[in-house]
Input
Amino acid sequence: MNIIVLVITIAIAFLITVLLSPIFIPFLRRLKFGQSIRDEGPKSHMKKTGTPTMGGIMIVVSATATSLIMVSKYSGGSIGYELWLLLFVMVGYGLLGFLDDFIKVAMKRNLGLTSKQKMAGQILIALVFYYILYSNDFATYIHIPGTSVQLELGWGYALLIIFMLVGASNAVNLTDGLDGLLAGTAAIAFGAFGILAWYGFPQNEVTIFALATVGALLGFLVFNAHPAKVFMGDTGSLALGGSIAAVAILTKLEIILVIIGGVFVIETLSVIIQVISFKTTGRRIFKMSPLHHHYELLGWSEWRVVTTFWLMGLIFAALGIYIEVWIA
Output
């Protein structure tokens, strides 16, 4: 697969999202599907109340359509199980996020599904994902980056898959807190995995899916950058989190996900550290968690926080690619 195909994939997904947005955003506004801002969040965010949410639907539709079009065209019409599996995860987690968003906007509250309901759905999708992999004799080892070492996990690989899909979807969801923050960092992370899937293995279906998601995110960013005209909601963030974990698994880059997704890891750790510190000492380490809110409350502009996190994402992505391509 040559680089022209990859560029076309990104361009098609970008155009689909850009063309959908002027139609879909007013539709969401007419339905009064506006974001409810949590009271305990930064006060500056209250002005964002009512901004259309569930924009993640556009990302899912664009990435799905582009992936199916491009894979069908360049594989003689046949689509392998890998792409169907990736689309199952994206759409499955997207539907779970949609339910969460719908409950929020329909009932005008900032909490949707309960944590137990959301966790049950995430685990169920992960179990189906593992079953399909198992049925296709997928390797159950993990590769240690920068070495030739492979650790066979056997049935323990199922636990790893559940942990990765649930953990990544929640970590990415936590990162979705500022205009353009998640769209940008996720585009960078998917781009890194797209490069590795194309260069190192190669896996055409995974490459196309990853880059189609990049294009969809860049198109969404046109309308989601500060000041945002639309939010992706849990519909988008859960779909992206589950999908990036699925891409890492299918490319056998399970550990590299921790590096390329470094921004998501740090955001999650900031929440964990904050909760542990407050419950054990009564003190907060950060002014607010996740970490991006801490910098807001330090006086950073929203755009400065977002661009700084994008830069961090680029550094982590470059580090992940370097470790896997050059050190290995």
